[in-house]
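Recap from last week: sequence in, structure out.
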Amino acid sequence: MAKSKVLIVGGTGYMGRRLVRASLDQGHPTYILQRPEIGLDIDKLQMLLSFKRSGAHLIEGSFSDPRTLVDAARQVDVVISAMSGVHFRSHNLLLQLKLVEAIKEAGNVKRFLPSEFGTDPSRMGHALEPGRVSFDEKMEVRKAIEEAKIPFTYISANCYAGYFVGSLCQLSTLTPPKETVCLYGDGNVKAIFLDEDDIATYTIKTIDDPRTLNKTVYLRPPENIVSQRQLVELWEKVSGRTLEKRSISAEDFLASMKGLGYAAQVGMGHFYHIFYEGCLTNFEISEDGEEASQLYPEVQYTRMDEYLKIYA
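Predicted structure tokens:
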């Protein structure tokens, strides 16, 4: 069976570039939307050209010209969106509504994967303001996909290791603290952490898999389901250092959000749901979902003790 042709939108971004590499590695004819909006961003252009040298195809297209999006969609079987949804970088989730319209008009796309790759938004109707905007917008995109009867797969990839693991889940750094670590509550609420390259590998594996059609795929590799406290203990073992642990209560954590900027409040709201509420692990996967490590046991995913060694 021929591998599906894949178009990746946002192919130079944090997840997008990993999806491009995973698609190429798994043998898919891989296309990247080259948007004129990159202007003089030489780093993005050179990344696109490096992907082209690796065998990817570049398709020019712009969200300001819907016809180009339709033309791009007609050249492929699968569209994956990796549009940014984090407020401290760029937040473009609702641009995907134009992509949905283009895919609907093209009429040939057999699978669309919108930009999610985090917490399952369908479970976050209770989320705190202002952080709930991310989940609400993802649900708006889902509604458009399903109303257009576009075949889909949603990816719930939980916590990116790059943002959460190196910092031991601290808010204001990306590297391990040297003396003191802040624990959220008692630090025992379980979360799920994944190397971003593994997220991309699992994602690409879903696109030709009939088991994942019109389902949410949860990335829950069992050895990476750990609490913040366990993550700290892994770091202490890897680094040979012992950190002082300070706990912050849920009430104090929420109170500390007041007066902060919008992006900071969004991020802290997400941290609250993950580390106090346990929103990533406090439910069983329903019949509308699948679990990636069970579907694809051949993937040798990165364990977090191995991941942490680069920081030691």
